[in-house]
Amino acid sequence: MASRRTLIAGNWKMNGHRADGVARAAALKERLAAAGAVPFDMAVCPPATLIWPVAAALASGPVLLGGQDCHPAASGAFTGDIAAPMLADAGCRFVIVGHSERRHGHGETDAVVKAKAAAALAVGLTAIVCVGETEAERDHGAAEAVVAAQLTGSWPESAGAAGGHAEDRLVIAYEPVWAIGTGRTATPADVAAMHRMIRTTLGSLTDRADQIRLLYGGSVKAANAAELLALEDVDGALVGGASLDADAFWAIAEATPR
Ligand code: 13P
Asked: Domain holding 25: CATH number?
């Protein structure tokens, strides 16, 4: 059984200006540094305008930095986009790809998500690849089939130019669309079943499925984090709203089983 270190990642989405973003990052850095040995990694994914100032606030501390999206290309005429090498240049270690707000709000297909994940891997970033069904898909009993298809379709086959095993720099986040920002969380039984299915599906894509961290996202907060993080195939959380408050985000991380 592989040991997968819990990852608690905050997705700030399109929230924050320099003052509050930097203050939140600095508060988390201070807390994590003071906490000593903890059983989790912590990352924050600010909006693009805040990546550089947050990088400066986190510098040489234990809190890791991520972007929220990247373009498949390394550079070029793509107005409004941000490239994976730019994120790496700014000190990012992670990038979220295929978030449902990109899949559904910007029409991103599995093929696009796969190309973005490959672009991230090529520059040494860890891609947090998001998958998740809509409420209608769950109501029709299609949740597992939808998630399995997204996972397979979004899977980048190789680690690209950065070499090594792609699996070592891939994280999967299961985020049921209906649980995002709604205050509704999937039941622990549903999360456990879906994560088990994801692990099994990963087993058909790689012989290193046991190494890959599977995060749950969707209305994670301090009150439900402990029971979610205790589930066997839940290796962390991708937190939206609650990550905008340093205390609330810290409390979620503290719920990691020891
Ligand atoms: P909430 O925690 O606000 O539901 O958002 C989850 C999410 O989308 C994280 O990427």
From this structure: 3.20.20.70
The total of structural domains in the chain comes to 1
Distance 183 CA to ligand 1 centre (A): 10
- The residue range of the domain holding 73 is 6-254
Task: Report which residue type is found at 79.
Answer: T
In angstroms, how far is the first alpha carbon of the chain from the final one?
Answer: 17
Ligand 1: residues within 6 Å at CB? 11, 99, 175, 180-181, 217-220, 238-242
Question: Does the model's pTM come out above 0.85?
Answer: yes
Asked if residues 39 and 7 have their Cβ atoms less than 8 Å apart, the reply is no
Tell me, yes or no, if 227 is annotated catalytic.
no
Set 71, 99, 144, 195: catalytic member: 99
| Other Cβ atoms closer than 10 A to 17 | 11
Gap from CA of 216 to ligand 1 centroid (Å): 9
In a domain, 206, yes or no: yes
pLDDT digits (tens, 9 = 90+) for 40-91: 999 999 999 999 999 999 998 999 999 999 999 999 999 999 999 999 999 9
- Whether 1 maps to a domain, the answer reads no
